[in-house]
Amino acid sequence: MKLRSKLHLLYFFVSMLVSLGAINTVMLYEINRFVEQNIYSQAYMHYMAYVLSGGSYKGDENFRVSENYQEKHLSYVFKDPRYIDRNIYVNINPEYADSSVKELFRRILAVEFFVVFLLALLYQALTEGLFRKIEEQEEWTKSLVASVAHKFGNFLSVQKVNLALLKAKMKDEEVLKRLERSLIRVERDMNLILNVLREERHIKREWVRLDSLILETLNYLEEEAKGKRMMVRLKEAYIYADETDLRDILYNIISNGIKHSKSFLHIKMCKTNKTVSLIFRNDISNSAGKGLGVGATLLERVVKRQKGTLRTRIKKHYTVLLKLRSR
Predict the structure, then answer these.
(1) Is the separation of the CB atoms in 313 and 279 below 8 Å?
(2) Which ranges does the record mark as transmembrane (predicted)?
(3) pTM for the full model?
(4) Paired strand residues for 63
(5) What does residue 153 show for φ and ψ, rounded to 5 degrees?
(6) Is the pLDDT of residue 309 over 90?
(7) Residue ranges per domain, the chain?
(8) Which of 27, 66, 175, 292 is most buried (CB neighbours < 10 A)?
(9) Mean pLDDT across the stretch 191-196?
(10) Which of 289, 267, 288 lies closest to 276 in space, CA to CA?
(11) Number of Cβ within a 10 Å radius of residue 257
(12) What totals of helices (H) and strands (E) does the chain contain, helices first?
């Protein structure tokens, strides 16, 4: 979070520097124009003093009035009212003209530096406070979810024990199997939440055969897929990723694809040298909703953690495109 705060502060400084650079460029042009007008006004005053004095006034150290043009000086030319063919030159000291611009611009830069410094301090304080609150909220949310998931996990464990006891007494195996599958399904849904909370250091990446995981998931969901056409086109493909995350991703997409389809689910795999893409397509039932359930956001986080992308499209069919890196 501190790194994000520093990056935002850096972006702020860069934005301010670019903005002030553009403003200062325009401002420098306007200052030069203003100084030139001011110098011209002063030169005209010296010219009038020369005329009124009958030619005895010669100006001061910065404005020299004479009938001769001086090279390497900024000079303004005026007509001598006494002689039509004679010019009067007001020669300005070049150091005076440069110093006028530099002094004014230096003051503006000093004010800008002070303002930017204060804004940077204020911006840093605000962003650090905001990020601190966000971080505290995230930690609180993680603790809450982990606590609820832990208690729910304990509840499932107790139910599994009860189920084992029922198996020893009941003869209706079909009912027991359905109950067992329901418990396992809830457990796998809860695992998605728990796995999202895993930190990066707990992620174990290894070579996993993706097509085998898909077939394993389909076999597990065989009961839910009864009465629906399953069209599967797979190739042998290996992914360097965390197997737990991959199982969660595939289970969530396939189970929701079956659940929200009317009559079919089509799974197709495409391979390149660097990526493996999976296309899941089904016909949408009336209760489809978004198609990925309430775990859509969680699923996207898990996919992103495995350096993959997840896209959805709803037209005539509902399509999910999952792209994973194969190396």
Answers:
(1) no
(2) 9-29
(3) 0.53
(4) 92
(5) -60, -40
(6) yes
(7) 2-129, 206-325
(8) 292
(9) 69
(10) 267
(11) 26
(12) 6, 10
φ, ψ at 236 (rounded to 5°): -70, 120
- Which residues lie closer than 8 Å to 319 by C-beta, 6 or more apart? 279, 280, 281, 312, 313
3-state class (DSSP) for residue 232: strand
Supply 52's token pair: 């009124």
86-102 per-position pLDDT tens digit: 888 898 887 887 777 77
Give residues with Cβ within 8 angstroms of 118, minimum separation 6. none
206-325: CATH class: alpha beta
Residue pointed to by tokens 């702020």? 12
Q: What is the 3-state secondary structure (H, E, C) of 67-124?
A: CCCCCCCEEEEEECCCCCCCEEEEEECHHHHHHHHHHHHHHHHHHHHHHHHHHHHHHH
Which three-class secondary structure state does DSSP give residue 273?
A: coil
pLDDT digits over 255-266, tens only? Answer: 889 988 889 999
pLDDT higher for 12 or 313?
A: 313
Quote the radius of gyration of the chain (alpha carbons, Å): 39
Pairwise CA distance, residues 55 & 88, whole Å: 10
